[in-house]
Amino acid sequence: MELYLKVRVACDGGMSQREASRHFGISRDTVRKMMAYSVPPGYRRQAPVRRPKLDAFIAIIDQWLDTDRAVPRKQRHTARRVFDRLRDEHGFAGGYTIVKDYMRDRERRGQEMFVPLAHPAGHGQADFGEAVVIIGGVEQKAHFFVLDLPHSDACYVRAYPAAVAEA
Fold first, then answer.
1. I need a surface site. Which of 23, 43, 67, 151 has the fewest CB within 10 A?
2. Range of the domain at 139
3. What are the φ/ψ torsions at residue 110 (nearest 5 degrees)?
4. 117 in a structural domain
C-alpha cells in the first residue's frame, strides 16, 4: 500500500509512468494499473474455480444441506460429516479441503446482505409518533411529526394535541 501511494503521488506530481517504473523498480504495466485505480483492487479471479472431482457431487451436497435447514443446528451436517458420507456412500475420491471450501462459499452466498444507506442532498425522512408529555403539570399524550434531513443533520419536530387531519 505504501508503494502504491508513492507511485500515485509521483505520477500525479508530474513524473511520467516510465520514470516511475524505473525509479521504483516495477514494471510499466504495474504503474499503469496503479494509476487506473484510486484504491488497489486486489486480486480478481478471471474464471470461476473449477472443481472437477467435486462437481459431480454438488447436487448431493446441496440436497443434504437443504434438508438440514429443518433440523436443529446441532444435528446439521458439518464439512467433515459431508466429506465422510461422500467418501463412504458415493465413492468420492477428492479431498476434504474442497468440500470444506465449497460449503463455506455456499454459506456466504446464502447470508443476508445489507446495502449501505445513502442520503443525497435534498432528501429527507419523515415519521409520525406519539409520546407522553407534561404540559402545565398535566401529563397527556401528544402526537408529533418529525422531519429529518440527514445530509445537513437538520431536524424538525412539531407536536399536536391530537392525530387528526387538521394537524
1. 43
2. 125-160
3. -90, -5
4. no
Residue 143 main-chain phi, psi, to 5 deg: -105, 140
How far apart (Å, rounded) are the C-alpha atoms in residues 52 and 64? 20
> Do 90 and 59 belong to one domain?
yes
Tell me if 167 is assigned to some domain. Answer: no
Which DSSP category does 56 fall into? G
C-alpha cell at 7: 507511485
In a domain, 115, yes or no: no
Written as one letter, the residue type at 67 is T
pTM over 0.90: no
Is the same domain home to 134 and 106?
no
By CB neighbour count within 10 A (0-12 exposed, 13-18 middle, 19+ buried), where does 68 fall?
Answer: middle
Could you tell me if residue 10 is inside a domain?
yes
| Tens-place pLDDT, residues 79-90 | 999 999 999 999
**What are 142's three cell numbers?**
401528544
